[in-house]
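Entry for adenosine-5'-diphosphate complex. Fields follow.
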Amino acid sequence: MEPTVNTPLPLPAEPAQGPAARPAIIRFEAVAKSYPARRGQAPVPALADISLDVPEGAILGVIGRSGAGKSTLIRLVNGLEKPTSGQVMVDGVDIGALGAADLRDARRSIGMIFQHFNLLARRTAFQNVALPLEIAGLPAREIKTRVEPLLELVGLADKRDRYPAELSGGQKQRVGIARALATRPRVLLSDEATSALDPETTNQILALLRKVNAELNLTVLLITHEMAVIKAVADRVAVIEGGRIVEEGATYTVFARPQHATTRSFLSALTGQSLPPQVADRLRPEPEPGCAAVIRIVFTGAHATDPVLSRVSRLLSVDLNILQAQVDDISGKPFGVIVVSAPGDAPTLAAVTSAVARLGLSAEVLGYV
Ligand code: ADP
């Protein structure tokens, strides 16, 4: 078949093992949520037809623009909101059906961290982390034996007696994480937890989330508006728009083969994903005699560092010019995107794209220049 613009080749299937194969610890079953109407106005629809599984031990990131429904989605998990229809199950419990006392119990297994940390200003780091345990009625000695290792885990043992005002943003979020872990939850909800932090601190906090995910087998559901956060930390990603999930899958697969325009636009904000302007401005959808084709080749997994381009050009005696190249790391796995130009005549183009496909990579003809 002759390759045409935006006719991608199939990606290798997602591995059967890994987070997606594990049972869901959080499950949205056909969930809709609207907020009650103000007088004389229609109810505000916030979520519609949400079905989503968060596998145990996974880090799942929900990305969407402001107003897409992210906060509503996360607040349904800890019962701060109740669904209008459908069910939100956490560890087999229908959260929306719980009464106040049962909900308080269920929340002990659901920790949460926030964009603005939500620490109590008049309590030290230690006292903030201790708070949920005091509320749960634990004796002081036990509180101490729980809080100290948590402060150690988040790298704040030496700041235990500092007040929030004496801590940096990253340190405050570390306290927030330790506090969220105090009741030994099975699930951690993160509501834009790095949005108020600079990029370097963001990376440190995301690394800490990965660490607690791995060391405590803690499932993490995070919401964000930044693809860089998803890329750094999430095993799986769900893209939400207008209260609906428009795309969901393993982060790696979604990055390699985004299906929805919203996903593509989030990805284009990352370096290496958008075309250089001098190419983008000249790109045409149809070939013309003597033109060059612009091809995006995605290198994943074991192939990410293979010398594929030199192999293809040697095999076919075709010159491939690199227009843009980036090798990255997504959830610890190598991921490369290379944009090349090749002769745009149909037979050469078909030979190049099928040679790339035979090497197990995906190639997409973006257009012609
Ligand atoms: P996001 O977190 O992605 O910005 P939200 O979940 O906060 O999105 O909001 C989704 C939609 O629901 C928006 O249209 C918002 O205005 C509306 N909404 C959110 N909270 C309330 C509320 N308490 N009352 C009425 N409407 C709300």
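NOTE: Confidence is low (pLDDT under 50) at residues 1-13.
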